[in-house]
Amino acid sequence: MKTSVLVRALHGGDVVAMRAMLAMFGRAFEDPDQYTAHQPGDDYLARLLASDTFIAVAAFAGDEVIGGIAGYVLPKFEQARSELYLYDLAVDEAHRRAGVATAMIERLKVMAAERGAYVIFVQADLGDDPAIALYSKLGQREDVLHFDITPADRPPGR
Fold first, then answer.
1. What span, in angstroms and rounded, lies between the C-alpha atoms of 141 and 121?
2. Any domain includes 153
3. Residues of the chain with pLDDT under 70
C-alpha cells in the first residue's frame, strides 16, 4: 500500500510542524542534538516562518512530517532579483526513493519564482551520492570550494 504524501509550505502558524521537521532532520542526519537540543522559542520560529527570506517546505504522510526543506531567499545587489539557497533537505529513511524529495523541490521551485528568485542553489558533500544523484537529475552541477570563516569574537568551531 502506497502512502499518500502532501507537500506544502510552512507559514507562521506552523510552529508545531516546524518542530516536527527539525526532529526529522535530526533523525535523517543522525544528529538529533543539532536540531532539537537548542531550538528557539515559538515566537522566533513563527517570525522566521512568516518572513520573506526563509522558506520551509514539509512533506506529510497523514499528520507525520516525513520530509523537509529549509531555504533562504538572498536578495541580490547587482539586479532586482534573488537567489534561493536550499540549506537543508531530508526525507525520513522509510520514505526515501519514493519521489518525496523531488516533490518538495518542485514546490520549492514555484515558491522561488513567486519570490523573484532566478536560481536555486544547493551544496552537496562529496561522498553523499544520493544527494548528488538527486541534484544532478534536477539541475546543473558546478564544482566549487566552500570556506567557513569564523566571525570576530567567536571561538573557532562554535
1. 10
2. no
3. 1-2, 124-125, 127-129, 131-138, 145-148, 154-158
Residue-level pLDDT at 1 = 40
Q: CA 29 to CA 135: how far, in whole Å? A: 18
The CATH number linked to 33 is 3.40.630.30
Contact 85, 122 (CB under 8 A): yes
Amino acid identity, position 106: E
Spell out the residues 6+ positions from residue 36 whose beta carbon is closer than 8 angstroms to its own: 22, 23, 26
Contact of 59 with 5, CB cutoff 8 Å: yes
- 156 close to 150: Cβ distance less than 8 angstroms: yes
pTM of this structure: 0.84
